[in-house]
Design goal:
alpha/beta, FAD/NAD(P)-binding domain, six-stranded mixed β-sheet, 19 strands, 26% strand, oxidoreductase, FAD binding, monooxygenase activity, monooxygenase
Amino acid sequence: MAAVRNAIVVGAGIGGLTTAIGLRRAGIDTVVLERRSSPDRLLAGGGFMLWHNALLALRELKLDERVAEVGVEIVHHEFRSDRGRRLARWDIAPEAERHGAPALGLRRSALNTVLMEAAGDGVLLGRRCVGFEQDADGVTVRLSDGTDLRADVLVGADGIRSTVRDVMRKGHDLPLRYAGYTAWQAITRLPGEDVVPTGTFFNMWGRGGLRFLYMRLNAEEVYWDAITADTVGASFDMLAKTRREVMAETYRHWPDPVPRIIESTDEDAILPIDIFDRPPDRCGGWGVGRVVLVGDAAHPMTLNLSQGAGQAIEDGVALSRLLSRHDRVPEAIAEFEALRRDRVAGMVGTAWSIGAIGRWRSRALCAGRDLFMRMFFGGKGRRESYRQMMDVRF
């Protein structure tokens, strides 16, 4: 008999909602506490990719088809230089058929909407966790309004600067690791298959510490992400110029459609995000007693594998399954970490290494990188990426 009758999840992001859905479908009474009070703020965000492994995990919750309906299938992943030269091209459709699940491009808000609908009335907005205490029988969660809630288990899914993590580690934690670059993310209205074709994710590698990613989300919208190393960003004049002007100037010599994508974007749509992670040797334990972390609260990673959301979804499926089957909560949490830790550590390390290569400024190093990608990335690089991606553990 499962030891968990009820659960509290802190954070209504992708990992928190996935965990809650899995627990509720296992018959466990679950509430999600979300500090943001407005659904509009909760369902905001740019675009991103969900790879096959994430869709297979969502299938465990019977949500993969619904998520596929709000995304666009990515059938090619194309790597290019900042001079427009193709470095490698991955045909994703055969992999989708082989693994039985597509890769998708979609709005983050679209995924969150699906998950919120599936979580139902278990999501409580405007409820901020400020602390907790646990004993042998359960966990008492303290809220900012002075009230307490009690449950058999507490799941911290409250992001990279997690309150649950901070309390669990008694306020002492090794610092996050700054990756040395900023991601300028946006969605713009830009119709036209001749400008950005549907079904291809473009991954452009430049000289001087610059990258640019883009893909079509639907017939009207394009998602893009300009990645600038701190050595570049230090020269940005953010006092005299708008974000769009800075991006347009930085990428003015890049091939079409990059300048056109930036020019079409509203100023308010561009969101700069400094990128951090936690290296595996700084993560510490993910759980203690009846409290456990998932997603970015446990193991934030850089964006370079497009696996942050995927690993959070895998976490949610794995944890909810183990908690619904075990007769002792601490043992279920220990098994969850043992199952997931090595896989996530590999993802964190690989994503960090890819990002470090993107910071290179030397023309000679960048030329060598481009040559390596032309020679190896379409074959061995793709196989190694899929080997790591599809070693699913949930």
